Amino acid sequence: MKKLTTEQRQWRTLQNMLRGYRFGQILMTCARLGVFDALASNAQTATELATQLNVNANGLARLLNAAVSLKLLKLKKNSSSAQTASNRYAIAPLAQTSLLPNSPFPLGRMMRREHAFYQRWAWLDEAVKMGTRPDANIRDEKSSNWVMDFELALFDSAKVQAPVVAELLKLPADRTMRVLDVGGGHGGYSMALARQYPNAQPTVFELPEAAKAATHIIASQNMSTRVAVHAGDFQKEDFLPDWDMMLLFGVLVSETPAGKLRLLRKCHAGLAKGGKVVIREWWLDDNRAGPLESTLFSLHMLLSTQAGDISTQTEMFGYLREAGFRHVRVLPLPQWLGSALVMGEK
Fold it and tell me: Does the pTM of the predicted model rise above 0.70?
């Protein structure tokens, strides 16, 4: 076959980029309809599954076949029949890893959250024109279950990532360690610290609705005696003094530069001498044009906050030093987790 020209390759690349939305929509639709849950225990034909899910059999068959092409499902052909309607669909290894209720790396709740974000990204042109979050992306958070669903989705991710982060923080074992998890939402990182370090005493500091979610999730993990929850507003309240460590995971991304500095100064005031603040978020390169995931998340902050954005590590080092922190450094995370931790000491 004749080798593609540069122009032909570029044309194909742009086509794939333009139509990339289809892959995520297939994945999210399968999850929202309950396909993966329904096939968890046994293979089924499209007709059997359509009856169970109360959907159209022809439409579902097309969805299932696309999922087979994406290696989310596998097709078990009926050798005794030439009719494709007798073929059975089963969960493929790729889906078993993350898309079943008891998968070791769960993504089910996150897919429901991403569906909401999928709709949010439809307003990107409006956000770019305005330079801030469109009104439509504010209304979607007024649902009564938005906060709980959001925190449960993040908790599924934290169940995988938090033990790795907790081990990396290497808390000293010779004394009690008071840890304030600022904006800690689901409490997953606080629970991981409590499990990893018997001397850790974590507290999740969250807004009232998120604090309710944290209390529920922490109780569901039988960790209520190890992890406390404080309901309040860290934008308005000062922190109690003498904390040994403060976590700011995914918090500063919602702040303006002035807001980041203000919150870091508040953290500095609340830490004991020698106490540490640990920040986790996506980091932009100094030219702000990479890496890819960080530039995408920067756009997501445009769509989701009034004025938030992610920082470069150089910028964050500057904020920390201006807030009074010393020994500012990066703690690399395993590549599969993405991002990195930045730590400063009082």
Answer: yes
